[in-house]
Write a structure and sequence with these properties.
The complex is a heterodimer.
Chain A lengths: L5 H4 L7 H13 L1 H19 L9 H46 L3 H36 L2 H29 L4
Helix pairs in contact in A: 2-3, 4-5
Chain B lengths: L8 H23 L2 H17 L10 H29 L1 H4 L8 H18 L3 H13 L3 H8 L3 H34 L5
Helix pairs in contact in B: 1-2, 1-3, 1-6, 2-3, 3-6, 3-7, 6-8, 7-8
The chains are: A mainly alpha, B mainly alpha.
């Protein structure tokens, strides 16, 4: 006997009235499909009637203790990482100081003072640049015509909108975590 | 249900207290072992705690937790499958005591054991879908959301799982009937 499509229909959620009637007629004639239907009903009953199982008492306390341990371990790991980074940076600085001193025939103190001098010089330059920008920003707005401002601002708004849209698109692609 | 948007360990402990039973039940049904289920549910809550900023408060918190638990269990089952070969080598040592259990215990655990055996026949994803449908009465949409599947994929998984469970049940019943028949047959010397 041909059991198709009745074998499939036994496990379908939504059957039309006609399909249901055909299935019932087939079930009356076919012992094999009748047995499969009974097995399906029995497994559904078993699944529906089975009570949920609970963990041993004190689950929340055990979790809290595990979470505390894990948090402490993570903090320790972060501190260790920070220490390694700082130590590597210090080691690299000292090594480069010694190497510069060795290859440039200057004393370590001379190289060190040179580094400090350059750093101070860099900071001084940065401050000057910031002050110049501030000056330009306070003076320029009154020198540029209004129409020019409209064009510049419209351009900026367009590119900002374009940029935000692309960022949103990319981030929505990654938002797949439950 | 507690509405918490930002979370610290104390707040989250309350969430664990309110939701640990359904999460544990899902892990137990997925993995079939109380100790593994305990580990998996603890890990589920830890993952949820670490990623709480990703939780969308418009969704049900329990559904979100069940989703994390289901994915964790599916990963565990896949890892186990990969380890099967090495475990098989020591199967004789690992197998539990085969001595018969007392009759009262057997009758109490029979349905649970039958269910556990049946569920092991299913693929991890199908198993998760069936558990979510029968124990948590989640709709196709909710199951799809939990397992990151389309509604049609959920429907086809549930269909496949039901069919497989029915066939496995038939086989199981056939085997036990044959066993009983064999026991009642007169021993030929």
């Amino acid at each position: 006997m041909n059991h198709n499509p009745f074998e499939e229909w036994l496990f379908e959620d939504q059957l039309t009235l006609e399909e249901r009637t055909q299935l019932n007629v087939h079930l009356k004639e076919c012992a094999s499909c009748r047995a499969l239907s009974a097995a399906g009903l029995e497994t559904s009953r078993l699944l529906s009637n089975s009570a949920p199982v609970s963990p041993a008492a004190g689950f929340t306390d055990r979790w809290a203790s595990l979470a505390t341990d894990k948090e402490a371990a993570e903090q320790k790991k972060q501190v260790r990482l920070l220490f390694i980074l700082l130590a590597s940076f210090a080691l690299l600085s000292i090594t480069s100081l010694f190497l510069s001193s060795y290859f440039s025939d200057h004393s370590i103190m001379a190289v060190l003072s040179n580094v400090i001098f350059n750093a101070l010089h860099l900071i001084e330059r940065t401050i000057i640049i910031i002050q110049s920008y501030r000056f330009v920003l306070t003076v320029l707005p009154f020198r540029i015509p209004y129409l020019m401002w409209v064009v510049v601002m419209a351009n900026a708004a367009f590119w900002m909108a374009f940029w935000s849209l692309s960022i949103w698109k990319f981030s929505s692609l990654k938002r797949v975590f439950a | 249900m507690t509405q918490i948007t930002t979370v610290d360990l104390n707040n989250f402990t309350q969430i664990v207290e309110e939701n640990h039973r359904p999460v544990y039940n899902l892990c137990y049904r997925m993995l079939g072992d109380p100790s593994d289920a305990e580990d998996a549910s603890q890990e589920t809550f830890w993952k949820a705690y670490r990623n709480f900023h990703r939780y969308d408060p418009t969704r049900s918190l329990l559904t979100w937790l069940l989703s994390i638990a289901a994915h964790h269990c599916i990963d565990e089952l896949r890892k186990r499958k990969m380890k099967t070969f090495s475990i098989d080598l020591f199967a004789d040592e690992v197998l539990p005591d085969q001595a018969p259990l007392p009759e009262s215990m057997v009758s109490t655990n029979l349905e649970n054991e039958q269910l556990r055996c049946l569920l092991t026949k299913l693929q991890p994803d199908d198993r998760a879908a069936i558990i979510m449908r029968y124990w948590y009465s989640l709709s196709d949409e909710e199951i799809g959301e939990c397992l990151h599947l389309s509604i049609s994929a959920v429907k086809s998984r549930l269909f496949r799982a039901r069919k497989l469970l029915a066939s496995a049940w038939q086989r199981q019943q056939g085997e036990s009937t044959a066993d009983i028949r064999r026991q009642h047959e007169p021993q030929s010397i």
